[in-house]
């Protein structure tokens, strides 16, 4: 594999020559344990974890007394500066990653989505060029598969072997744009299996949505509520079932992105349980979103078309008010493994493209900044799960699935110093007026969250310093994701 990481850049925030930091007196939370410890960092890497560590000269001391010290969040699902449905998402790699860091996320995984006839290698380079000089945190790329062909298969192999990509997104929806049929899904899952890569699936039945949309528009339903009417829960659940069946026939792993409904989550959980029964383990994984556990489609809170359009994403927010609690329960019980933001943000003037036709509203919501706080508030503060599980579903599991653990997703000797120092007692109220994102709306507006990052370290750089955001544009690195994740494939890992 070629050397893919950015060269080390001059960082005006690096004060001492050896970049030494000692985090003292905090409660260190990993997915598998929680204990009081100090952490010593040098040149961006955790060098020591233990009690009463010595204080070498020329070391910055951060006192973490009464704070939790956790691996920085990994958001496995973002769409920064994505051209989609006639608009470009307004959070670019600078604003999106700056906001991520402000919220305690130290790495994002963005989807590079090709046009139908675009080479996957070209789209990879396009995304790297967009990101390189803007990213404020580390990033990796998933690559979209918009059609199936022998060339695509060869390009997938090159991406895995040369460019550090180990995950591909296939769409069962967005007919005519990204949607693949079952044969294409079968073939692309098989290619992933042969490469040791991970097929990620947007599971909604695109044919049904296409027909429903026509029928709704013909009957005069053009408003934003038509979006969810065109794609009810069973349309999501059917696709989850089909993706699970296809992956089982192929023998490939499967990662379902943005599980948004009770029905879909139940089907996923059933397939996981069945596979565990049959094979002793499962290669099926499920991601839900901060949006899905933090809010729902609540007519009482939607005052106008603009509000409604701002909440439009696919699969849609469900009107069943039990959905967030239900999904949180599945996160607690390991029926779901990860939480993303699916950050794909469009301003009011862009959402207005669908003013007379819901099917033209650019799909997507915010979340890259607030994901950690929302999951903490709804999960830990509400006693659904403990801080270890919080770390697991916001960071560690993504690192394991995408094969960058323990470099990421862990506070341990040798890991990158991507750390969030979390004050569980401080509160903040989410608002578009104060968020760091470029978008003009926040779907969590007014939500009071416990849990505030006091310090955020990205590769050993203190980017939130006593609550003050101090990012450096372009400081993030591209993180290659090697194939054959042991967590996914359970076979010897040839890379680490
Ligand atoms: O509505 C959404 N989810 N927008 C982003 C594209 C996708 O399907 O993930
Ligand atoms: Zn999707
Ligand atoms: Zn309004
Ligand atoms: Zn998405």
Automatic annotation (TrEMBL):
Give one Pfam family, short name only: Amidohydro_1
What CDD domains does the annotation carry? D-HYD
Q: Name one GO molecular function term.
A: metal ion binding
Lineage: superkingdom: Eukaryota
Presence of keyword Glycoprotein: no
- Keywords per UniProt: Hydrolase, Metal-binding, Zinc
Q: What is its EC number?
A: 3.5.2.2
Q: What is this enzyme's catalytic activity, as reactions?
A: 5,6-dihydrouracil + H2O = 3-(carbamoylamino)propanoate + H(+)
Q: Which cofactor does it need?
A: Zn(2+)
Q: Which GO terms describe its biological process?
A: pyrimidine nucleobase catabolic process
Identify the residues that the record assigns to the Amidohydrolase-related domain, covering every copy. 68-462
- Keyword Methyltransferase listed? The answer is no
Q: Which NCBIfam families match?
A: D-hydantoinase (TIGR02033)
How does the record describe its quaternary structure?
A: Homotetramer.
Q: Know the name of this protein?
A: dihydropyrimidinase
Q: Which organism is it from?
A: Cinara cedri
